[in-house]
Design goal:
Largest sheet: none
Distance between the termini: 70 Å
Shape: globular
Mean pLDDT: 82
């Protein structure tokens, strides 16, 4: 009887179960959608949400992660963060300026003092994080 030798290929890593990939894809999609909204809404921090989306897509859809890295707007944010933990100065100015604008608008619209204080605290923490990152 002839001995048949089966050629072994380099073993590919096992793919995550479908429910895990679906979870990460959903999380990435939600984070990216909120990050896009964060471009115009100051309470949503674009950079951390895009970074979260990149992480989630790396676990679920590498092609989407690659697209994000090549994207003209999001790509530089991701590469700056990965290389230096940095946020570009223009994004810092934009983020903090919009946070201040929303706080002033909330004051003008006579938002309840408790809400103003809560907004100010949350925005202060977000601004401190943003401003302490390298540029």
């Amino acid at each position: 009887m002839a001995h048949i030798q089966v050629q072994q290929s380099v073993r590919e890593p096992m793919r995550a179960p479908i429910f895990k990939r679906m979870f990460w894809f959903t999380a990435g999609s939600l984070a990216l959608a909120l990050g896009v909204l964060g471009i115009v809404l100051p309470l949503l921090p674009t950079t951390p949400l895009v970074l979260l989306a990149t992480f989630a897509f790396a676990k679920s859809a590498p092609s989407v992660e690659a697209w994000l890295r090549r994207h003209s707007v999001f790509g530089p944010i991701i590469s700056d963060w990965q290389r230096n933990g940095a946020i570009a100065r223009r994004y810092k100015v934009l983020a903090v300026g919009m946070m201040l604008g929303v706080l002033v608008l909330s004051y003008i619209l006579a938002v309840a003092p408790f809400v103003l204080i809560l907004q100010a605290l949350c925005m202060s923490v977000a601004a401190a994080f943003i401003l302490t990152r390298p540029s």
